[in-house]
Design goal:
mainly alpha; elongated; about 0% strand
Length: about 325
């Protein structure tokens, strides 16, 4: 078979096979996902070496399982006062392992059901507190000048004021509901996070690649969201786990003082009911011990997890394992 003139002469370029991208090449998003998976795997390997952190995580998993399955295990009827299954303040027995409250309700079921409210309030209040603190800390560390001076003086004022007093003041002027409790705890516990995040932001923005990003035209939002925020997120994560325990204790304290939502059952509310029923003077220990142990257990579990996370993300802290 002969070639025609239209076919043109055969050259090395025309006879060489067409070059294609290698099959192993990955898109930037795929590479980013791969790096995140590797980072998560490395974080878990380091976290598992902290026995206290693993113990705290297992305890938190148990508490979360109890709270999530409460509608199936005890049901919402456990809060019913009119159809209580037992007599007032019955001591622990086979039928009521933790005894009954002043209305004859099963105290074990109340503790299980109260875990839902206590954990929910603690988590949401901690998230709100850390979000406010991170926003203030990043902006104060980035903009500096008069804005940083004013905002950090406000932060100092919140730091020196007793958190519980501020929360009580907010609870007394607002409606008594779970949303009010979350707001009162969240807006009074953010200053510590703001201080830590601002210090970390100042350290990040002193690095050379931040100057290069600014020289290439990176705006304020780009610098804060793409460079500063990813570097302060480990600190924010560790701070969140530590604040959750404080938020749960704060919710229990407010409920114990009679400032909680009277329509829901929480661990702090159970302690308030026990105080009003005279359980302390009459020696009805089963009314006081279970919710108190539950509060202490959850707070300790979050603290152990927070210390382990902080140690993994910042090994220079030297937290014991």
């Amino acid at each position: 078979m002969t070639t025609t003139e239209s076919d043109g002469p055969l050259t090395p370029e025309s006879t060489a096979p067409e070059k294609t991208a290698p099959a192993s090449a990955k898109s930037p998003r795929a590479l980013a996902r791969q790096r995140r998976r590797h980072s998560a795997a490395r974080f878990w390997r380091e976290y598992r070496t902290h026995r206290a952190g693993v113990l705290g995580l297992a305890a938190l998993g148990l508490f979360a399982l109890i709270a999530l399955t409460a509608p199936l295990t005890v049901g919402a009827d456990v809060q019913n006062v009119t159809d209580a299954p037992g007599g007032p303040l019955e001591s622990p027995s086979a039928e009521f392992p933790l005894g009954t409250d002043q209305f004859g309700r099963n105290l074990l079921g109340l503790v299980v059901w109260g875990s839902r409210v206590s954990l929910l309030v603690g988590l949401l209040a901690a998230v709100l507190s850390v979000a406010i603190g991170a926003l203030i800390g990043i902006t104060a560390g980035h903009f500096r000048g008069w804005y940083a001076t004013v905002i950090m003086r406000i932060t100092d004022w919140f730091l020196v004021m007793p958190t519980l007093v501020l929360a009580i003041a907010l609870m007394t002027v607002m409606s008594r509901s779970l949303g009010t409790i979350i707001l009162a705890i969240g807006v009074t516990t953010w200053p510590t996070t703001a201080r830590l995040v601002r210090a970390q932001t100042l350290a990040v923005e002193s690095r050379p690649y931040i100057e290069r990003a600014k020289a290439l035209g990176g705006g304020h939002w780009h610098i804060m969201s793409r460079h500063v925020l990813p570097n302060v997120m480990p600190l924010v994560l560790a701070q969140t786990t530590l604040i959750i325990s404080s938020a749960i204790l704060a919710e229990a304290t407010l409920a114990f003082l009679g400032l909680g939502d009277p329509t829901v059952v929480s661990w702090g509310g159970l302690l308030q009911d026990a105080r009003e029923a005279g359980a302390v003077s009459s020696g009805d220990w089963w009314y006081l011990v279970p919710p108190g142990v539950a509060i202490a257990g959850v707070a300790l579990s979050f603290t152990l997890c927070g210390r382990a996370v902080e140690s993994v993300l910042n090994p220079r802290l030297g937290v014991s394992r």
